[in-house]
Amino acid sequence: MTFNLALRGGASVRTTPFTAWPIYDDREARGLQAVLESRNWGGYPCPNDLAREFAQKFATAHGARYGVAVMNGTVSLELALKAAGIGFGDEVIVPAYTWEGTAAAVLFCGAVPVFVDVDPNTYCLDVTLIEAACTERTKAIIPVHLGFRFADIDAIMEIATRRGLFVLEDCAHAHGARWRSSGQERGAGATGHAGSFSFQTSKLMTAGEGGIVITSDINLADQVIRLTNCGRPPRRESVGEPMLGHNYRLTEFQAAVLLAQLERLDEQTDLRERRTSQLEDGLRQIEGLSVLPRDPRIARQASYHYVFKFHPEQFGGIHRNAFVAALKAEGVPCDGRFYEAVYRSSLFEFAAEKYPAWAQSKRQFDCPVAVRAGYEESVWLPHQIFLGSSEDVADVLTAIQKIKTNVAELVGYEDERIRIQGMSRAQRALLESKPPY
């Protein structure tokens, strides 16, 4: 029998790679060489020259007054929470569908993450469920702007203001995104009390690793610097209480790379938006797939991944994982179980007694939208696909349509590749990785 799908031995739609990531040019090379020759490599004094310059430029670009560059995006979440006074026994509202680090940062503060389900139209925190999850111990909310959509930050700020809660926007996917509210535009991270970004390798800007906290509250910024820089107060006028701190400083090498990355962010954001619009137009024509509607308040979309929904009923009843495996075989990078319901994730397994506040909370969570998104419904396409030509996007759509046309070849088809595709990223990494030592 002759098969058409690449997963079954047919020819792949795409045989050449998409745009390689990270992107760099002479700007990164010149910056790194300048730091090398300066012999001023580290993060001390804090912030060092390039780290200070980058943090200010990044904060300004997003509409905040202050920025503190740090080691990574999980650290930035943890430091912002600690700087706001979040500690033992406090509860923090987090979405159930996100990277495990969002909830882990809460645990690292001695506090308790309280998982709230996500909106099926955005996969971001469902604001209609927040107040029912609040108790007298609730002190903060961490909305995550996931993939390429915004949490409803206006509604979240209304709830937070009324209840006296700290709002920390997790913007690890949202570099350059903008939100319009009451006629005013703000960058991601600038509406809440603080915003946290990651510069890990896959992100929309990267120095391999890195993170930043942005805020317009100088006292909060002072405390983040204090916690980043071994407890040292940043200014004589600092008013925050003394706090023990780690060395979470960003190096000058990383800052040099990030300054160059920031220079091309606007151009890349605009290109991704044009290409994802082309993809969206095509996806709407394929029965069995649906797009996440765009909130008109999103003034500028940042697409870390483009996420759409897979409906098995129109694809011969195959599982989402089989669809993803088939799409990858056609040469299109993609993922299904990119994230999962955090409270069910293998990366969120730990000895409860090591986090006493969590052990005492005895909370139970039931978040069906997050479960469905993680294990059955969502398909994630990485942002570098959208940094190339319109022909690249056309190939993605051709591959999807090819699977739709030949879906009978996948019905009942189970093999090792599909099993692996259905694993979480953590499980696949363990299966595929070399020994760490």
Overview of this structure, please?
The chain is an alpha/beta fold and 437 residues long. The chain is 36% helix and 14% strand. It contains 15 helices and 15 strands. It has a seven-stranded mixed sheet with strand order 1-10-9-6-5-2-4, sandwiched between helices. A three-stranded antiparallel sheet has the order 8-7-12. A hairpin with a 2-residue loop joins strand 7 and strand 8. Helix 2 runs parallel beside helix 8. The protein starts with 25 loop residues before the first helix and ends in a 5-residue tail after the last helix. 49% of the residues are buried. The model has no long low-confidence stretch (mean pLDDT 93).
- Helicity range: 25-40%
Lateral arrangement of strands in the main beta sheet: 1-10-9-6-5-2-4
Element string (H = helix, E = strand): HHEHEEHEHEHEEEEEHHHEEEHEHHEHHH
Uncertain runs: none
Q: Largest sheet at a glance?
A: 7 strands, mixed
Number of helices: 15
- If you average the pLDDT, what whole number results? 93
List the helices and strands and how they pair.
Layout: H1 26-38, H2 49-61, E1 66-70, H3 73-83, E2 91-95, E3 97-98, H4 100-108, E4 112-116, H5 130-133, E5 138-141, H6 153-163, E6 166-170, E7 178-181, E8 184-187, E9 194-198, E10 211-215, H7 218-228, H8 252-263, H9 265-283, E11 289-291, E12 298-300, E13 305-310, H10 320-329, E14 340-341, H11 356-361, H12 368-377, E15 378-382, H13 390-405, H14 416-421, H15 425-432
Parallel strand pairs: 2-4, 2-5, 5-6, 6-9
Antiparallel strand pairs: 1-10, 3-14, 7-8, 7-12, 9-10, 11-13, 13-15
